[in-house]
Amino acid sequence: MKKVRTFFLLTALSVLILISVAYWLSAGARDSKVVGRSPSHATYKARERLLNTSKLWSIVKTAKAGATGPISAAAPPELGAGKSLHVSKESSCTSTWGKDSFCDDFLSRTFHQRVAICHNSNDKAEAEQIVCKRSPHSYVMSSCVMENVLLRPSQLYELLAWSDRDARMHASSSPSVQLLNVPGGPTCHDPNAGPLDQCMQRFDPSRLIVEKAVSTASTDTNACKRWVNDTTFVFMSSCCHIYFRFLALYNVYKAILDEGPKGSVQVLRVGESHGHYIFPEFEENIFDSTALQDFEEDAVCFKKVVLSPWSYSSVLFDCKQKPELRGRCYACSGKEKCATSFYYFRKAVLDACGLSDNSSVESSYKNPKQVVIILRKSYKRHSDDDPSKVERVLENGEDFVSALKSDFHGAVVSAIHPEDLPICEQIRYAHGADILVGVHGAGLVHSWWQRDSALLFEIFPDYEVSNIAFKVLTQLTGRRYKSYRIHDGGFEKHSFHVNVQDVLQSIEAARR
Known about the structure:
Elements: H1 2-35, H2 39-64, E1 83-84, H3 102-109, E2 113-115, E3 130-134, E4 142-151, H4 153-160, H5 165-169, E5 177-180, H6 205-214, E6 217-218, E7 226-236, H7 242-259, E8 264-270, H8 280-287, E9 290-291, E10 300-307, H9 315-321, H10 323-330, H11 341-352, E11 370-374, E12 393-394, H12 397-407, E13 412-416, H13 423-432, E14 435-439, E15 455-461, H14 469-477, E16 480-486, E17 495-496, H15 500-510
Parallel strand pairs: 5-6, 7-8, 7-10, 8-9, 11-13, 11-14, 12-17, 14-15, 15-16
Antiparallel strand pairs: 1-8, 2-3, 3-4, 4-5, 4-10
Helix pairs in contact: 1-2, 8-11, 9-10
């Protein structure tokens, strides 16, 4: 009987091992499809995730057991603990933007004018608990750093939800954000968020958090169910519009570069709603980030929180939106682009998708091996939009694609609907494109990932011809850019017909 029991135990153990191995391998294959990495790398990531699952669960159990106060070196790892961020800048490349020039001041340094939120006494040299800085060239761009802050994750969603602003500010009986008066820590005397009226947009989530923080303060550090000692960068974005999504990601990445912390950092991702993220795995790969819902405690305290502006307050958006900045931004050539944050963000995006610029295939827009055309269809800029609100669809798109294939018979011509593809597959197509063609729209943000020798060819309807978003982007990243203007219909017309031969001749001229 004892032998029978032993046999059944060994059989059950073998089955469990086989199931675990199968799950591990399937997770690797799934990662290689979704993220665009090689199967070997994806398998490694799947194994790493399985190992981390048990570690994360033990951390969550430790937190639920009631751990309070700042975490000591001897304590277990923090939930979502950060990592050291080392950006290896090429020493052989320096920017041609002169120090204190507009290009350096706006695009590189950006935030360096102090905005007085705290009013501490100068003679006591007290560190300020909230430090906000603005750009001197824009009235909607600021970045803020807060120290010793309590966040209540579930109530933070209430504060940031797209609804009436005043209702959001008073939605919760318990404050979603609080400043903590920690003995020996920085202070904030006579806090006043009023100056943010002159340098942050009204619905910028970072502004809402600062305003909520200055209205509530507490000396009760025992309310903290967990402390996070890493410098924490908060990523918030409600846009499914991919252009604005990448602007928000860029703002966070630039904040990490600008802040330049010595130790480990982490990025806290706040979803559109509880647990809802547009590109969860991709965004996690860029920053090795922690999702807000991973903090199961009702009160998490952070040693240092960095709030970057939302996508509508990005330098790239300001460059295309404000007439007084357009020409000045376009004059900032990105030829020596390896000295800019645009370049390093591009590298981070490619790395998150397992891509690099190393290739044995020599090609360029003059001798293209790959041509990609982005075809548009109805989409939603925000989650509650009417899907037919914005279109700009080519009526004769199939004819145009056929003509491209005939004209570039020595190249692979691919027509894609980006929204039908995983995000890294979209990036892979653009990265490999020697010529990227498309009607003006959000998908052309993928020109950011093209190689040095590539061309973006943008097709403009009449009413969008003044929108230089992607002309500026290619200029700042060192790509070649040409455009073609459609004289067909006004603002209300959602679809367009192009003269195929005219467009082909314009592309051919751009290749000379």
